[in-house]
Amino acid sequence: MAEVQYLVPLEDYLKAGIHIGTKFRTKHMDKFVYKVRPDGLSVLNVEQINERLKLAGKLLSDYDPKDILIVCRRENGWKAVKKFAELTGVNLFIGRYPPGVLTNANLEDFVEAKLILAADPIPDKNVINDAAKLGIPVIALCDSNNECKNIDLVVPGNNKGKKSLAVIFFILAKEFLKNKGIIKSDKDFKSSIEDFTAE
Question: What CATH number labels 10-180?
Answer without folding.
Answer: 3.40.50.10490
